[in-house]
Batch of 2 targets.
Target 1
Amino acid sequence: MTDATDVAERRKKQQTKIRIMLNSLKAGELASMKGGEDTVAWIKEELCIGCDQCTIVCDDDAIELYDKPLASPIMNIEVNKKARVLRDPCTGCKLCVLSCPTDAIVMIDR
Ligand code: SF4
Ligand code: SF4
């Protein structure tokens, strides 16, 4: 049976794997993107599918998932997660932008 320690360990390994992959594949994109301490990540809620990739890569615990009620009452889905950035801990490192499969994250001026 999987316990919390196993999950934490697997999450850490996945975090490292994603970071290495992103760094190698998107180094050029990262260099040309706005970032640094004068910027903060911003998530476009309508594009977020709650996949949790950004929270995995964020070292600074600056992203959290929250429940968003579905707009349509005819869809019976219990969990509808969205991500949001916590401005204060965000360092502007840009990693979350590269991890997002739906391009929901952009860097904006603080
Ligand atoms: S820019 Fe960096 S610190 Fe800020 S939310 Fe994204 S991954 Fe976290
Ligand atoms: S990686 Fe993108 S789509 Fe996935 S939870 Fe984060 S903002 Fe939402």
Target 2
Amino acid sequence: MVKIILHGVDGLSEHEVPEGSNLVVLAGVKKLPGLRYSCGMGRCTRCASRVIGGAEHLPPPNWKEERMLGEDKLAEGYRLLCQLTISHDLEIVQDRLPLKPAWKRLEQKV
Ligand code: FES
């Protein structure tokens, strides 16, 4: 089991989850309350979270994360939880408002 510390929109919570879990899948079967998500496929960014502990154990971002989060948010430590399999303890923060996809943030700057 690995420990997940979630600073979610509903507050701080701690969870023990099986090694090899996908946190969005667990949230989908009500085993990780307080985690915001939607598509589960890297298309919506609703699961975007800033990893503040344990990021060194995660694989590099995949193409969906690169496309949806952009260099700026990846550099800030954001990841798409639906794209990750968790094998070590992790501490994550979900912003109060969902992160917009990278291209929508770019459109707003123009
Ligand atoms: S749940 Fe939609 S991108 Fe992760």
